[in-house]
Amino acid sequence: MASLSGSMLFPATLPHGSTRSTRFSIWSAGTITSLCYKPRNEQRKVVCACMAPPWNIGSDEYPATKFNNLYKSEHLETVMEPEDDSDFLIECKNVYKSFGEKDILRGVSFKIRHGEAVGIIGPSGTGKSTILKIIAGLLAPDKMNNQDGEVYIRGRKRDGLISDQDISGLRIGLVFQSAALFDSLTVRENVGFLLYENSNMGEEQISELVKETLAAVGLKGVEDRLPSELSGGMKKRVALAGSIICDITKESIEPEAKEMKRFSKTDKAREEDAVGKPGKIASYMVVAHQHSTIGRAVDRLLFLYEGKIVWQGITHEFTASTNPIVQQKLTKALRQKTQTEIGPSISSDDFLGTAGRLAVLHPPPKDSKHKPGFPAKAPGNLR
Ligand SMILES: Nc1ncnc2c1ncn2[C@@H]1O[C@H](COP(=O)(O)OP(=O)(O)OP(=O)(O)O)[C@@H](O)[C@H]1O
User: Where is this region: Disordered (predicted)?
Assistant: First the structure.
């Protein structure tokens, strides 16, 4: 699954005119979106995950229309508070997207709260990656009947692509499913690549940042290793670290910027004020194939099918649902998929080995109603 990886190897121009592919292109987008990320103690994480089982739904027996009746949440009241628009990080409103003749998204609507851990599930090719790309601002939603599908990020409507906008305090980065590491570079060099290339930070400073960032994704003592010496999951974490290490102000990457002067000074307080420190990841989105992994990682699931969100519910409802279709068909098919295509023994630690797509880094609003620490289910050491 996970088409967000290979198909997204587009180049982008970085500061100083160098051209990179994969995660660095995403990074260049990320640096545009966030100029001053101020960490707060109460930051929480959003996890979004997608998985793509070859479900047998869609057959005559289980057409999508049946699932439209399931567009409801079961027992949401057990964990959700009354809606308050100010508390949403992401909202997709009636989003459409076609590629040529293929209608992929046909009116997708959902909301993700600050601090909420949400997974998007659905068959392969159903448009999960497309949703993430639209949220990330890499794709624009189609106009439908002269109306745009609307994407709101922290209550602000996204117009156009990410490069058109600067949503203060918000950073969005992508980590590809194929880890996109440079094989001949060490972990330290991979993670710190952008800083080595484009900042005037010293070796020691970059090295320290690399170390902290690796720790934030649950890796310690691997700085001198080559990618070939890492497991698949570790590679994903390294890729994620390479993404979030740029949770540094643009000023640190563009030394000529005025703010850089502040940043490069020894004043620790100012530095911390200007820099999003590793380990304060507010939110991120990942993908995974395995339902058991999703269960550990997210609190709520959105089920995308035939271009629409046709079911949503608390994660455990997906398997414990009293809905006979969900219970009998979806979970069964997922189990089959897991055993035949992935293997039954993937542990939660491998979460990022089979996952890793999109990170949204943001400070939650001051008045957010969610308690610090929520969600409880962030994967492994990324908590
Ligand atoms: N840029 C593009 N041009 C043309 N078709 C595209 C493009 N991007 C995606 N598609 C098509 O849109 C459909 C949805 O793709 P998408 O990658 O969003 O699916 P997905 O649900 O993430 O799949 P998977 O789980 O297999 O990764 C697929 O049929 C894909 O071929």
Answer: 357-383
What's the one-letter identity of residue 64? Answer: A
Which is the closest atom of ligand 1 to the Cα of 2?
A: 27
* Residue nearest (by alpha carbon) to ligand 1 atom 1: 99
DSSP code at position 80: P
- Mean of the per-residue pLDDT values of the chain: 57
- What tokens does 248 get? 């540094």
Residue 33 binned pLDDT confidence (cut-offs 50, 70, 90): very low
Ligand 1 contacts CB of residue 124 (under 6 A): yes
ipTM field = 0.98
The CB of 99 under 6 Å from ligand 1? The reply is: yes
Domain range 6-364, its CATH number among 3.10.20.30, 3.40.50.300, 3.90.76.10, 3.40.50.880? 3.40.50.300
pLDDT at residue 302, as a whole number: 81
Confidence band, pLDDT 50/70/90 cuts, at residue 211: very high
Instruction: Say yes or no: CB of residue 127 within 6 Å of ligand 1.
Output: yes
Q: Which atom of ligand 1 is nearest to the CA of 127?
A: 18
C-alpha closest to that of 49 among 381, 271, 363, 315: 315
- Highest mean pLDDT: which of 10-14, 20-24, 60-64, 144-148? 144-148
Q: What are phi and psi of 109, to 5 degrees?
A: -135, 130
Which residue's C-alpha comes closest to atom 8 of ligand 1? 130
Please tell me the residue having the least CA distance from ligand 1 atom 4.
Answer: 99
